[in-house]
């Protein structure tokens, strides 16, 4: 039996009358979404939360009085719910957006332009509905992990030397992926297996993410480059919205970047990455599908699973958005469903040379 969908009851918080009207028009056309109120300030929003009991909030970062970041912390502490942040496209706005994710926001979007309003509307509406229907978990995460607010990420002790058996790992993430990678990647040793990650992220968040990963990780973390070999001790992150990353050749695998159309609406496509890992490496690959909205990666994970590769999903309680991992589990493509803190140990166990290098 398919469970009934919960209506998204959205409170829009933005000091711009134009933006409040724009969001109202978006949500009025979106099935399963109701705007229960609009607020021009954090002070007004405090009263409306009590009166209207929304289950999702959109929040502008740049507001007079109590700014969006400070109010986000207040909401996460006192009345936790999924919060989607809106920001400017400036460098300062990018850093503030990243801080919002660190403080518990579900996602952060740059405010729309005339060129991208249709795509913005589609993505925001889908995320709001997901948030209201229990597959988004940002509020519970912030409540359970207050030490992470403001960018306080645990720096793992230096892992012991790693004896690599030749396997590679491929991973994917979208909504919630910033938080997932900041938890996962510091646990990798400096000489761990090669890893390629397909990450769908707003372009302005790439620089602050890479800055933090490089500061907290023992492994080298780099942006994927066309033709770059997969190297022991290196993580390549493919997040260019104009290209797909695929695994090219075996042995001596390398990244190939393809400038082709989106696959089922996704670029980079996790399914393409997974399917090419299956074709080239087969059982010498490990795949992991992390937090994310939609079903990108599911088809490719099925191919990986059929090839004999170990396949892993991030479990629902540790996901910020569980749609993609849940779809992979429902498709029968997953061998191990693990909490986020167990994923790196499982990958390392699968890539450790207990029985020598793989054929």
From TrEMBL:
Its EC number is 3.1.1.61. Residues 163-354 form the CheB-type methylesterase domain. The modification 4-aspartylphosphate is found at residue 60. Signal peptide: none annotated. The keyword Hydrolase applies. Keywords: Chemotaxis, Cytoplasm, Hydrolase, Phosphoprotein. It comes from the Bacteria. InterPro entries: CheB-like, CheB_C, CheY-like_superfamily, Sig_transdc_resp-reg_Me-estase, Sig_transdc_resp-reg_receiver. Pfam families: CheB_methylest, Response_reg. GO terms for molecular function: phosphorelay response regulator activity; protein-glutamate methylesterase activity. Residues 9-126 form the Response regulatory domain. It catalyses: [protein]-L-glutamate 5-O-methyl ester + H2O = L-glutamyl-[protein] + methanol + H(+). The keyword Phosphoprotein applies. One of its GO terms (cellular component) is cytoplasm. GO terms for biological process: chemotaxis. This is protein-glutamate methylesterase.
């Amino acid at each position: 039996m398919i469970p009934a969908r919960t209506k998204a009851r959205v409170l829009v918080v933005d000091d711009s009358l134009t933006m409040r009207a724009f969001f109202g028009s978006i949500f009025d056309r979106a099935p399963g979404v109701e705007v229960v109120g609009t607020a021009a300030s954090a002070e007004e929003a405090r009263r409306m939360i009590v009166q209207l009991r929304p289950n999702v909030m959109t929040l502008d970062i740049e507001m007079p009085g109590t700014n969006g970041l400070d109010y986000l912390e207040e909401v996460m502490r006192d009345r936790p719910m999924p919060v989607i942040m809106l920001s400017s496209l400036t460098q300062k706005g990018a850093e503030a957006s990243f801080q919002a994710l660190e403080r518990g926001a579900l996602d952060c979007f740059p405010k729309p332009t005339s060129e991208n309003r249709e795509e913005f509307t589609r993505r925001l509406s889908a995320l709001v509905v997901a948030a209201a229907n229990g597959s988004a978990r940002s509020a519970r995460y912030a409540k359970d992990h207050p030490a992470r607010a403001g960018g306080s990420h645990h720096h793992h002790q230096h892992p012991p030397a790693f004896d690599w058996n030749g396997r590679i790992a491929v991973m994917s993430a979208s909504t919630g992926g910033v938080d997932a990678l900041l938890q996962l990647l510091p646990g990798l040793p400096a000489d761990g297996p090669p890893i390629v990650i397909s990450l769908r992220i707003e372009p302005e968040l790439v620089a602050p993410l890479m800055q933090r990963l490089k500061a907290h990780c023992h492994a080298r973390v780099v942006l994927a480059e066309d033709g770059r070999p997969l190297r022991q001790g290196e993580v390549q992150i493919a997040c260019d919205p104009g290209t797909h990353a695929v695994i090219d050749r075996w042995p001596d695998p390398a990244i190939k970047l393809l400038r082709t159309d989106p696959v089922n609406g996704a670029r980079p496509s996790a399914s393409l990455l997974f399917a090419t890992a299956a074709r080239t490496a087969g059982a010498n690959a490990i795949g992991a599908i992390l937090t994310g909205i939609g079903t990108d990666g599911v088809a490719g994970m099925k191919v990986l699973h059929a090839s004999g590769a170990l396949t892993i999903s991030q479990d629902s309680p540790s996901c910020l958005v569980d749609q993609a991992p849940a779809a992979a589990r429902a498709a029968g493509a997953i061998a191990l469903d693990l909490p986020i803190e167990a994923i790196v140990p499982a990958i390392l166990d699968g890539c450790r040379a207990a029985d020598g290098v793989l054929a």
